[in-house]
Amino acid sequence: MARPDLNQLVTLDVLLSEGGVARAARRLRLSPSAMSRALARLRDTLGDPLLVRAGRGLVPTPRALALRDQAARLVREAEAVLRPEEAIDPARLARTFTLRSSDGFVESFGPALLERTGRDAPGVRLHFLQKADKDSTPLRDGRVDLETGIVEGSTGPEVRAQALFRDRLIGAARADHPLSRGAMTAARYATARHVAVSRGAAADAVDQPFLPPDLQRDVAAVVGGFSAALALARLSDLVATVPERHTAGLRAGMFSFPLPTPAEPFTVSMLWHPRLDADPAHRWLRACVRDVCGAS
Predict the structure, then answer these.
(1) What total number of domains does the chain contain?
(2) 10 Å Cβ neighbour count for 253?
(3) Sorting pLDDT into bands at 50, 70 and 90, what band is 83?
(4) Taken in order 143, 146, 209, 170, is the CA torsion positive or negative?
(5) How confident is the model at residue 173 (pLDDT cuts 50, 70, 90)?
(6) What is the pLDDT at residue 259?
(7) 105 located within any domain
(8) Does residue 239 lie in a domain region?
(9) What is the pLDDT of residue 2?
(10) Is residue 2 part of a domain?
């Protein structure tokens, strides 16, 4: 069975609403003869004359009257589907967004983000998930709306990314740690006992790519996140190496110091799947995250 020509639906709507060929032709910017041919094709498609002569004008047939409202509704619905979505009113938005982030992001940026979204969109709920790995699958399958992290080779090639801020590694220890007294040197830092953050072995610590390759540290403990590393460092002689901005809230009351050894800075970005590029609600959320991270 041949597929119907949906362009005829627009023609039918205009003809039935205008009730005449001449007026319909002007509205569609066609010649009267072209409009007459379009009416002839509609009559052939529907098996009904639709508009018939009555004196000097045309009147709709019963079939045309039955189709008029339906045709108008379908055309309006199709136009709504094909029209770019309008800007949303956050105050009327009711939606839950799932954000996946590395350890420390919620503590450092979560309160300001919740204040911003709660003020502008009280119907929005934020669901924060711990980022346990760099797999982009949760973004692709829709389980996660937005995540933060460092764009790497393992990041899915289709994932969109936008930089949020630059960060750097610093050292952190308890307030009265021996390193807090005297000049900080690379030797003192390296020979201290360390807690490393890794999803595997100490050699795969997350800070390793940003530190000198020949740096040798005495790693006494390995944990899975920055908050655990700082909790151990706060109550022991261990030293944690952590991102400065990402862990600002977690390090309150601790001795923090610039690393006395070269370390590469890095960019923290937000990442999302391209299917959400044009979603007005998601665009609003991205603007909120960008503003909060830029102001913190």
Answers:
(1) 3
(2) 8
(3) low
(4) negative
(5) very high
(6) 96
(7) yes
(8) yes
(9) 62
(10) no
pLDDT of residue 253: 94
Give the sign of the dihedral formed by CA 178, CA 180, CA 181, CA 182: positive
Let me know if residue 62 belongs to a domain. Answer: yes
Which domain range does residue 254 map to?
169-264
Final residue belonging to a domain, choices 82, 98, 120: 82
| Cβ atoms 64, 48 nearer than 8 A | yes
Mean pLDDT is lowest, of 40-44, 102-106, 144-148, for 102-106
Question: Mind spelling out the 3-state secondary structure of the chain?
Answer: CCCCCCHHHHHHHHHHHHCCHHHHHHHHCCCHHHHHHHHHHHHHHHCCCCEEEECCEEEECHHHHHHHHHHHHHHHHHHHHHCCCCCCCHHHCCEEEEEEECCCHHHHHHHHHHHHHHHHCCCEEEEEEECCCCCCHHHHCCCCCEEEECCCCCCCCCCEEEEEEEECEEEEECCCCHHHCCCCCHHHHHHCEEEEECCCCHHHCCCHHHCCCCCCCEEEEEECCHHHHHHHHHCCCCEEEEECCCCCCCCCCCEEEECCCCCCCEEEEEEECHHHCCCHHHHHHHHHHHHHHHHC
Q: How many residues appear in the chain? A: 296
Alpha-carbon distance of 177 to 239, in angstroms, equals 9
Work out the average pLDDT over 64-76: 87
CB burial of 115-130 (b: ≥16 within 10 Å; e: otherwise) equals ebbeeebeebebeeee
Indicate whether 295 pLDDT > 70.
no
pLDDT at residue 278 in the model = 83
Q: What is the pLDDT of residue 55?
A: 80
138 and 253 in a single domain? The answer is no
Does residue 94 sit in the same domain as residue 162?
yes
Are the CB atoms for 34 and 24 separated by under 8 Å?
no
Please give the model's pTM, rounded to 2 decimal places.
0.69
Residue 90, both tokens: 């956050």
Is the predicted pLDDT of residue 1 greater than 70, yes or no?
no
